[in-house]
Structures are given as structure tokens and as C-alpha cells.
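Q: Is it fine to ask for two folds in a single conversation?
A: Yes, each is treated on its own. Send the first.
Q: Here.
A: Result:
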Amino acid sequence: MTQPLTEMGRALSLPGSNPVLQAHPKLTFAKGGYTYTIETNAGHSTYTVSDGTRTISLPILWSFGAGAQTWVLQRGDQLYESLVSYYPAIHGLDITTGDERMTPNTLDAAMGRPMTQQNAKACFGCHTTGAISQDKLDFQSMKPGVGCEHCHLGANQHMADIFEGQEDSIPPDLSKLTSGHISDFCGQCHRTWELVVRSRWQGEATVRFQPYRLENSKCFNATDSRIGCIACHNPHQQVVRKASFYDAKCLACHSPSMHRASVPSANRSKSCPVAKSNCVSCHMPKVNMLGGHLTFTDHDIRIVKPGEPYPN
């Protein structure tokens, strides 16, 4: 079973099972007059921030992310998102994505961003399985990472049936959804086109919202299964990073053979006059964020022209 090993399957971890924290027993970072230290020992991790006079030290309860990581802290009854995060590209700490413009003027503010109830439900709801019960956070029922039941309601019953010998049990099937519906389904966590537009989010930060970017593509067709999220990505396996892997996906629409008279005109797409391989390296450019700490593939599929502004 490969899904638990994917980045989604490891979207949340506890300090005792966190390979990043275990591999880096002490991480330090300083900015704006504050010093941050994350120390891990015997399966426990501590997040400390100091202004040189006062110090706040809290246990790390949960880690969001399988590569880059942001931590959740608790002070009293209030949950906080850490103001610094770990980035594999630099093997170290820097300001958490989205908080770059924050200039904390107190030690409490430098510790992290308070999570509203809505924030917490959204974060845990997308990074775990079973965290939301009756519209409330339920840490007792929560399982780390995105598991079967997160996407396939009824999957737990399917597994129980299999263990009891009911081999004809059929799990919930998402493959029959249209590309538009799949985009909305994945967009519950990766952000839908509607949400991004309503929220008036613009600029390069939107590259993180793949369903929105994909639906901006000229070639997107909400009823064509060749252009949906799962046409290229198998959520049960780790994302493939090799550009050539996606050539067959692109050529399913853009192959010269699609121009035959026998192919319905609605299914025909122009073939690339430049190349027939490594399509995504040109038509889905990489976008660097935070000075290169994070790199995202832009899912707005297009002919990219040198020097053109980032399309919203």
C-alpha cells in the first residue's frame, strides 16, 4: 500500500515520528531581533523564541508538511502556527510562507500566528483524516495525514469488509467524476477557482492553488477527463518529478494523430511545432517563492513568452 508513504499521506506528523526533526536535533534562526531554536530530544521537540531578555518555550504538538514544515503550538487554550518553518531547499529555518511581511513588535507576536477556530479546522481538516466531527475539531478521532477515508467516505467500512472476507466489497470510486468536479473536489484543500476569485487572491502566490491555475488554462475542459487532476496524478502514489513522465498525458490531447478526420473536432488540439517531449518544462514553468525556498509547477498550461508578466 503506497498511499501512506506519499506527501499527502505524511501531511501531518507527530514530533516522535517526524524524520525532519529527528534528522535536525537543533535548528536555529534569527530575524528582527528575535532568535528561534527548535530542539528535538528523545522524541520530543521544543520551539523557543527569545528577544534576548525574555524567552517563550513551547512543545511542538504537530508538524504540517512532509517536506517543508510548519509547526502547531499551544499556549493555554490557544493554538498557534509557528512564525518560522523548515525548508528543505536551505536545510534550515526561515519565515513561514504567508508571514513574510509580518513585523512582530512583541515576543508573543514573534512566537507565531494565533489560529482562529476556522483556520484550525481548515488546516487540520486538510492535513489529517477524521479531524472534523459535527463541524468541530476532534483530536481524539484525528489520524495524521490524508488517509483513505479522507477522500473516500465509506473506505473504512470497505476495509472492514475485506478483513471479514467480503472480497466483493467495492470502495467509493472518484474516477467517474468529471474533470470539473474532480477539480472542485481536490480544491477543497488545494483551493478552487471560485474561492481564489472570490477571495481576490492574485500574483505569484496563486501558483500554490493548482485547481485554480489549471482551470485558467485555455485547454481546460470541465467534461474532458484528459485534463483533470487525476489524469496526470495518481493520489495513491508519490508525485512524479520527472518531466518526461507527463509527455503521454500531454500527447493524449496534443498528438498529431488527433488531427485525423476520424477524430471528432471537439477532441482535437494543436500539436506543438517545437518538441514532442518534456512538454511541461516549457508549458508549465516553475515558479520560485521565498527566494527559492519553495518551487511550484504552474498548472496554468500555456505558451510561455519570455518576459511576460505572471498571468492571474
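Q: Second one now.
A: Result:
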Amino acid sequence: MLAQYSKQNIFLFWAALVGSYILAILPQDIAPEIGNLSDKTLHFIAFTVLSLLLNLSYRMAWWKSIVYLIFYACFIEFSQYFTPNRCAEFLDVVADTIGIGIGLLFYWGYKKLEVICENS
């Protein structure tokens, strides 16, 4: 059961990674609007989810997941620089980094609850 759960998490992580990249590089005039959420809020939510899924999918040091996802955030901004009607923004990377940290906190909270449930 655990192997299947990990495979599901890995699939979800890669689907979220690819999906977030596709949405990030769509020209602004054809990108779908997601409610009344600001661009920074969407970055924050996306990277919170990516951080949580990455840590649920792969065993790695927490700092490595931060480095990998910040690199990905910078890659998105680099790509947006060359995308019509898009621009690269440093504050997007800041929102991404905050989301990465919150995703890690969710992951650590989940692991603590898992240990508590196993010991009950």
C-alpha cells in the first residue's frame, strides 16, 4: 500500500509541476483567470502545493527541496521574460519561496500527526 501511495504522490507532483509550468508560460491574454486571486497569491498557492507534494514524493533533505523549488521558480521567471505579454518579477520568486516554506511546514505537521497516530 505504501508503494502505491508514493507512486500516486510522485504522479501528482510531476503533474502539478508540468501543469504549473504550462500555466506560467501561457501569454497573459490567453491564460485562464482563476477567481479574483492576485498573481502573487497564485504563485504562493502553487509553490505550497509543489513543496508539499515534493516532500511527500521523495525522501530528501528539506534544504534540497527548497533549493530545487527556488531554482524552478527562477526558471519560470526566466521563461516568462521571453513569453509575450508576460514579465519576470522578483516578487513572484519571493511569493514562491514563502509558499515553499509553508509547504514544508504542512509536510512536517503531517509527519508529526502520522507519528502520533502510529503510536496511539
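Q: Anything structural to flag on that second result?
A: Two points. Residues 2-119 form one domain. The chain has one domain: 2-119.
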